[in-house]
Amino acid sequence: MIAASDITKGVTIQVEGEPYTVVNLEKVTRAQVDPDIKVKLRHIRTHELIERTLDAHYPVDIVPIDRLAVVFTHWDGEFYHFADIGSDNPDDPDEFQLPPDMLGNAANSSLMIWNSRCCC
């Protein structure tokens, strides 16, 4: 956990139990009062933009996001199959499968995994 004053652009934080990436932030100072941090956030799954104003000392959870460089290999009628092309051994990539409800409408060549769920 970090203080809101330590947030930087591009960091993924948890707001109301959901993961958001900081798109923009501004420190708003007032006379003889600790500054507020005004942040614009993008939800990593829905891409919804929200704005929040946080007290500079407000504790914020950093969200660990795994970003995988993947290539879609095939659909077997039940699961989508992917190969992790960013693995340590490019000659033998790690392969995994995801059900359609977990994948959503991803059309990227990378996947973001949070809490064992795809945040495409």
From TrEMBL:
Matching Pfam families: EFP_N
Domain Translation elongation factor KOW-like: 4-56
Domain of life: Bacteria
InterPro entries: Rib_uL2_dom2 (IPR014722), Transl_elong_KOW-like (IPR013185), Translation_prot_SH3-like_sf (IPR008991)
UniProt protein name: Translation elongation factor KOW-like domain-containing protein
Organism of this sequence: Ktedonobacter robiniae
Taxonomic placement: Bacteria, Bacillati, Chloroflexota, Ktedonobacteria, Ktedonobacterales
